Amino acid sequence: MLRLAPLVLATLFVACSGDAPTPSSPATNPDDADLPAASEAISADVEASEPDTTTYVLVLGNSLTAGYGLANPEADAYPALLQTRIDDAGLDAQVVNAGVSGDTSAGGRRRIDWVLRRQPVDVLVLALGGNDGLRGLSPDSMQANLSAIIASVRELNAEADVVVAGMEAPPNMGDTYTSAFRQVFRDLAAEHDAALVPFLLDGVGGIPAMNQPDGIHPTTGGQERLASNVWPVLRSVLQNG
User: How far is CA 189 from CA 120, 193, 196, 202, 203, in A?
Assistant: First the structure.
C-alpha cells in the first residue's frame, strides 16, 4: 500500500488519556479470569512505548516534486513512485512530499523551519534550484540558500542524510552561467557529505514525449523517469545510512 504522507498530515498528535484506575479492595485479589486481560494491557503498553524506527524521507522541491499538471499527483509524482520502490524493496521508510509549485531556493529556505516543526527528517532529498535557473538568479545566492536548508535539517538531526538533486540552467543563459549553476550542486554535495543525483531531469528535460504541452513539467512517464533517476542513489542511502 502506498504510504506517501502529504505534508499537511505529516504531524501526528498522540494524546494518551483515560480514567484513573480504581484501587482494588484490600480484601480482593484478581482471579484467574482477570489475568489474561491484565497481561494484554501490559503487552499493549510495551508495544506503544517502542521507538519509531521508520526512516522519514523529506523531498523538498518545486512543481516537479509537487506533480504540477498531473491528474493524480499524490499517486503519480515521483515522491509517490519512490515510496512504491521503497515498499517493494521492503525498506521501512516513509516519503513526505514537500513540493511547492514555483518555489525557489530562497522560498525553500524560508519555509524549511516551518516544515521541520511539523515533520521529522532522517533523509532530505533536496530538489530545488530549477526555478532559480529559469529566472537567471545568482548561483552564489542559490548555493547559500541550499546550504542553509541542509544546515537547518542537520541542526535538528545531526545524523540526517542528504541527497542533492542536481539541475541544469537553460542553455540560453550562456556558458558562464550554466557552468556556474551546474557546479553549485556538485559543491553542495562535497561540502555537506551528501549523495548526488547529477541531473534530476536526465532523460526528461527537452524531450517532448516526456513533458506536458508546456515543455517544462513531466508527464506521468516523465515522472517515472525522475523516480528512476533518484531511486538508485536514495536506495543506497537508505540501505547504508
Answer: 22, 6, 6, 18, 22
* pTM of the predicted model as reported, rounded to 2 decimal places: 0.80
Please provide residue 53's backbone torsions phi and psi, each rounded to the nearest 5 degrees.
-100, 0
Each residue's pLDDT tens digit, 168-208:
999 999 999 999 999 999 999 999 999 999 999 999 999 99
Boundaries of domain holding 192? 55-240
Indicate which residues carry an active-site annotation.
63, 214, 217
Rounded Cα distance, 184 and 129, in Å: 10
Q: What is the largest CA-CA distance in the chain?
A: 89
In a domain, 9, yes or no: no
In a domain? residue 28: no
Q: If residue 58 lies in a helix (H) or strand (E), which one and from where to where?
A: strand 55-61
